[in-house]
Design brief:
By secondary structure, the protein is an alpha+beta fold. It contains eleven helices and seven strands.
């Protein structure tokens, strides 16, 4: 496995890998992205956990870390079906109305304080390095953003990705799209997700299994 990791590093984006110590796939992805874009900053998982106010056992929402990254020169383009503007204005009830019930129940159960998240969202929407596309992203969006400068992460259904029944929102970092497969960093629990390969069809199915999937691109240019 180590040989393959070294070989992939020479053939494609050299993105550091971080595993998921428990309900922290998003924080692991932000760590990978920050280390890739800002390699001289010596950013660690623990450091970003403090920035985002992560509590073990709960999911890490993107907004406080996104603001931290944007304050350091990173531009973020985001696609999400969630109505951020209404959520920021009207609070958690607006989030509940903009996603399927099963997804809201999952977010509510696995988030320490959704009201706190709302405040962080307001800061992101006001940032001049943030571009928001409020719509459900498509596979064509993924390919288009992948071909632009920077690096992308994607929210998909990990149950479908791992060929299981059910639903769990999961964030992965996109490394490469070829004619037949997608290569990505999957921050799983056992650390085996570095440069994971799945067919285009299967990866796309996991993405489309989310009724409100998300796609974000991070770049040092606007």
């Amino acid at each position: 496995m180590k040989f393959l990791e070294i070989w992939y590093d020479h053939c494609m984006k050299k993105v550091p890998y971080h595993d998921n110590p428990g309900n922290a796939c998003a924080l692991a992805c932000y760590t990978m992205i920050a280390q890739y874009l800002l390699p001289k900053a010596d950013i660690t998982f623990e450091q970003l956990g403090k920035v985002g106010g992560w509590r073990k056992g709960y999911v890490m929402w993107e907004f406080p870390i996104w603001k931290w990254l944007m304050d350091r020169g990173v531009y973020i383009t985001d696609y999400d079906a969630i109505d951020y503007k209404t959520w920021a204005r009207d609070g958690v009830d607006a989030l509940k109305k903009s996603v399927p019930q099963k997804e809201f129940d999952w977010y509510n159960k696995n988030t320490y304080d959704l009201n706190e998240v709302t405040g962080h969202l307001q800061e992101v929407l006001a940032h001049n390095h943030f571009t928001f596309n409020q719509r459900k992203p498509t596979w064509e969006d993924i390919v288009a953003e992948y071909n632009k400068p920077g690096i992308c992460d994607i929210v998909l259904n990990s149950k479908t990705l791992n060929r299981e029944e059910g639903f769990a929102a999961h964030r992965v970092v996109l490394i490469e799209i070829t004619d037949s497969e997608v290569i990505f960093h999957d921050p799983n629990h056992d650390g085996s997700g570095s440069y994971r390969h799945e067919s285009n069809d299967h990866f796309r199915a996991a993405f489309e299994a989310m009724e409100s999937p998300a796609l974000a691109r991070y770049s040092l240019t606007s």
